[in-house]
């Protein structure tokens, strides 16, 4: 998520802009989701639906950067080791936060029980930290993916299989009654596990390397994805009376359309370097801090819930308060990350 190319005339600033946009989109998504599961209202659903491109964008950027300029095995493995180290460092932090928050909520457990919970959180990770082992797993596949993208026919075939098996089929299954039976009987293999993100990895490379001439057309997919995800989710939510989240996965057709559309917009409007070198330097720093914002922002959302003001605040006029809350969480997370990155340890784990 935080691969950084040195500044210069050849730097592609579109990836910096896209990282910043994607990191804020994830904060807005997690903020609006807190309201949608309670209110089931159209406003929070719209924000929740429209921000489903965040993680795919990060994976697509990593795909282009790693497949367009292959790294030596030693450097690639250092990337993997760093991701694993970051994962366990923050799993320990969030494990302690989980133990404290559950105790503060009135849950009683012994010292041994607290230790078991802490160890479980340390190994399994907080809900959003799955991104780190997923990306590390894809990095293990980079030597294989390099061979695939060198063969145009093999690359197109791989992307087609990804779209059919990991996007279209899971999307269609959401509309079939008795989904558990269908998944068990018709899809014996789960095509939407972490390895499937390699599809986004390859798509990111192919679109930037060979597909930029189609950006004007592909950019429209952003609107298509948002409308499809929002409209269908709203219909099913109203029909069932429950918050419908069947189309929120990155492995749904609407999410793919949004990710490709945003990626195309980056190629259309965000490639030029800022006129000011100072602005360019800040842009690079904000881009480098995107991983830290991703890691830290759930802590401040949880803190707002513990303090009892986050969700009640967003429930009042959510059209304005949800993005305002997300901006506050993003700004606070970003400020902490920038301060921590002034230290050697901070640069190592953020």
What is the CA-based Rg, rounded? 20 Å
Uncertain regions: pLDDT < 50 for 5+ in a row?
none
Structural class: mainly alpha
Q: Helix coverage percent of residues?
A: over 70%
Distance, first to last CA:
10 Å
Overall shape: it is globular
N-to-C order of helices and strands: HHHHHHHHHHHHHHHHH
* Mean pLDDT across all amino acids: 88
Give the amount of beta strand, in percent: under 5%
Count of helical regions: 17
Summed up, the domain count is 1
Question: What does it look like?
Answer:
The protein has helices at 14-39, 42-50, 54-68, 73-104, 111-124, 131-150, 152-173, 179-186, 198-210, 215-218, 221-240, 253-269, 277-288, 290-307, 310-315, 318-340, 344-349. It is built from 17 helices and no strands. The longest helix has 32 residues, at 73-104. Helix 14 crosses helix 16 (318-340). The protein has 350 residues and is an all-alpha fold. Helix content is 76%, strand content 0%. It has one domain (14-349).
Summarize the structure.
This protein has 350 residues and is mainly α. It has helices at 14-39, 42-50, 54-68, 73-104, 111-124, 131-150, 152-173, 179-186, 198-210, 215-218, 221-240, 253-269, 277-288, 290-307, 310-315, 318-340, 344-349.
Structural topology:
Elements: H1 14-39, H2 42-50, H3 54-68, H4 73-104, H5 111-124, H6 131-150, H7 152-173, H8 179-186, H9 198-210, H10 215-218, H11 221-240, H12 253-269, H13 277-288, H14 290-307, H15 310-315, H16 318-340, H17 344-349
